[in-house]
Design brief:
Elements (H helix, E strand, L loop, with lengths): L3 H6 L8 E5 L20 H10 L3 H4 L5 H10 L2 E5 L10 H22 L5 E4 L2 H13 L3 E2 L13 H15 L2
Parallel strand pairs: 1-2, 1-3, 3-4
Helix pairs in contact: 2-7, 5-6
């Protein structure tokens, strides 16, 4: 069993300049964003890296995941999940219930990780719907007012387009 927190911590910047919040680690452990052992069906990793690093699409080769995660860290990016255990194999209503139940703990974690002015990007419709208002009410800097889809099932291009648009707001 992967230790998600341990893998994530290896790539935690000293100062987070942009925080990404996705739903949860995937049920299929090898697809975890920070898992160096997975590169094949790594939709979130590949889509994020293509937007942040224009050279990624043409230059990335198997075995370079650590290099790009290190660059991601050096640029001040950090990705966490709304829930720290896999829930993607559950029905939407149950996933949302679990996220809501964990909301206070996760907002406390966010508060410990970043300052209120640090840009936050919420990935996936349900994460946006549950977190957006709560984070803004508490003075956090969510940089978008509409959801961004998870980059799979044909939503990769929409994800990249919206993610790029939101990053341009942050890093003008």
């Amino acid at each position: 069993m992967l230790n998600y927190q341990e893998l994530r911590e290896k790539y935690k910047p000293r100062k987070i300049k942009c925080l990404l919040i996705a739903e949860s680690p995937p049920k299929s452990e090898e697809r975890f964003f920070y898992n160096l052992g997975q590169e094949k069906y790594d939709f979130l990793f590949k889509s994020v890296m293509e937007v942040i690093f224009p050279d990624f699409k043409n230059n990335y080769q198997r075995g370079q995941k650590h290099e790009y995660l290190q660059r991601f860290k050096e640029q001040g990016f950090y990705l966490i999940d709304a829930v720290d255990t896999p829930i993607n194999d559950r029905k939407r209503r149950e996933r949302n219930k679990i996220i809501r139940k964990n909301l206070e703990n996760k907002i406390k974690e966010v508060d410990e990780l970043i300052s209120k002015d640090t840009p936050i990007i919420l990935i996936k419709k349900n994460v946006f719907e549950i977190f957006h208002h709560e984070l803004e009410e508490r003075g956090f800097n969510v940089v978008h007012d509409e959801h961004i889809p998870f980059p799979s099932s044909g939503h990769q291009e929409e994800f990249k387009e919206k993610f790029k648009q939101y990053l341009e707001r942050v890093f003008k």
